[in-house]
Amino acid sequence: xxxxxxxxxxxxxxxxxxxxxxxxxxxxxxxxxxxxxxxxxxxxxxxxxxxxxxxxxxxxxxxxxxxxxxxxxxxxxxxxxxxxxxxxxxxxxxxxxxxxxxxxxxxxxxxxxxxxxxxxxxxxxxxxxxxxxxxxxxxxxxxxxxxxxxxxxxxxxx
Length: 158
Prior knowledge:
Blueprint: H1 3-7, H2 17-78, H3 81-90, E1 101-102, E2 108-109
Antiparallel strand pairs: 1-2
């Protein structure tokens, strides 16, 4: 005889009770894993969307920077002293004479005099061309600009 039988009643072993007690724990672990995977998938999708938006914004920034630089070149060309002088002559403006200042008491310092137009520079005579010039420029060629007048560069998107 064994000791267990000799000493008294042995504890009976539950049949199938351990599997039923583990079921909620297994379901909890599976639910946590599924929730983690779903949240990881959503996080990855959000990061990818942000990456696409960042790429689009970088392209847009590059295009706007190029346009800003082209516009700045135009402003620089139009604000150059020789361009301003040429444009002023085209509008009929003449350089001013000696300045006259008005004081805070209303008195003038200097003598006012009307500005006089300087004599136009002499135009050099050029030899006659040997071949006749075409009467109209080619349709694909842009119209020639007057000499010395800055031409704006075409800006993208306009």
